[in-house]
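URGENT: need a sanity check before tomorrow's submission.

F., can you look over the RecA family profile 1 domain-containing protein record below? I want to be sure the sequence and structure line up before it goes out.
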Amino acid sequence: MERSWIDGDESAKEMLQRVLKDGPPFFLLVPPLHRVPLRLGNVIELVGPSPSGKTHILMEAAITCILPREYGGLGHLVIFIDLDCRFDISRLSHLLNHRILLLNANDDLHQLFVSCMTRFLYLRCYDSLQLISTLKTLHYRLQKERETHGVGVRFLIIDNIGAFHWVDRAATQAPPQGNYRKCLSLQSVSEAVVEEIKKLLLVHPMLLISTKTTVLGDKFSTNEAKWNFGKRSSLDTSYSRNISSSTRQPSYREYMPSVWQSFVTHRIIVRATDNYFKLSQHQNLSIYSSEWLLPPLSFSDKFVVKDAGVFIVS
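Structure tokens as predicted:
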């Protein structure tokens, strides 16, 4: 048997250099995404009701990507696709400025801010057809931006992947109107979106982070079967095992088609709690909780959202 592949002798440093050079790099992102190392090609779904800090977490991840390496970032481009059409660019600017001030940078702060913002690429879609068209043409946009900036896109962010779900579902139930009904059918739209993203990830390795607003239900008020990912699941049990019946926290029902569910590699659920973190005598911050569903972890985190970032609290 050929054993030459295990006869090599290299140090841990040499091994890490080889792996990071030949394979996709891994990331440890901002809380609550910091528990699991992530690689290019992973698809993260951030699930939760509104409000639960999902968009803020996306902004913090984007800022980490666009900051230069010498300031703790990745120095790469981010594409942010806004499907809710409620993105607040002034909020992103405020968070970025605050992060830069905390760095105590010796460089021109304004120039650093401008260079970071040029690496943030924002797109907005108003329906599923526009989303599919955007994904189909994104390959050429990515090539052009790489030539312009000298670096590629590392994060593809979609906020909120389920924004058009109910419109597409209603279109599926509408009377046939030629090919228009087929184009807007729920299954065909999801298949097209996943197919186009897969094509992009093959040519342009990126980390995909997507949010999804939950459909809420009270799991403690009825004896109905739990819904998670379209069927009764141990992951749903993982979500609820640490929650006492007295808190009456809402569960959520999976509504995205199976083609999207199977595409997701990592899933984390976030939600607001009834507790507050005392920041000062006159200011309290809402405490949010998070739990990894895929891969399932045996614990949950509590975190608060501040201008300086997302912070875990005990």
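My own read: Residues 42-274 form a domain with the Rossmann fold fold (CATH 3.40.50). The CA atoms of residues 1 and 7 lie 13 Å apart. If you see anything odd, call me.
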